[in-house]
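=== RUN LOG ===
request id: a7f3
mode: sequence -> structure
chains: 1
length: 206
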Amino acid sequence: MKRKSIFKDGKKYTFSDYFDMKNPTDEIVSEFGYSYEMAVIALPKCTDYDQNIVKNLNDTFYTVFPRIPLTSETAKREFLIAPLLLEIIKHSVVKINIEYPLEIDDKLSGYLDYFLRANQELIVIEAKKKDIDSGFNQLAAELIALDKYEDNEQIDILYGAVTLGDLWKFGTLDRHKKHIVKNIHSYTIPEDTEDVFSTLLGIITD
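=== RESULT ===
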């Protein structure tokens, strides 16, 4: 028996609406003809950079954490996410768009918090309410929108990351298989700063 659609007739859905949905990720992506699983992802990593970059980032993070209450999205954006992305800009040819508008149809539209474009493309979103799982639902919808938007057929895999600032979770979308994978592993800042930085740099230079 065919399952009833999770969408309400006549309602326009933005990316942030998927954050508030209580449906599991597989039900959401199946509405668009995609499959989903949670598994270990062999993420690309770049090791060809000065290790002082990570040291300096961690010096900043260990200074910030005790002194600044990281209770708001603005604080996390400015003191945890921005320093990482600024170093990515300095050490690659990436272009970063902030609050990038993307509209496909009445079920896929809104703004990408951070859209990184270089050899590869990467979406980074900030999860609201300290909820990484609901954040991944939103990320999945944004990856599907990007798949429909991107006409470069040479890009086989789309990458995304959802972050609380101090916690990072990566995901992928295989464009040929229409398959989304959520990485089992998570990374924390500052303990895993090197992993996060090398992965971000590895994805966009892949």
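=== NOTES ===
Residues 35 and 64 are 40 Å apart (CA to CA).
Residues 15-204 form one domain.
=== END ===
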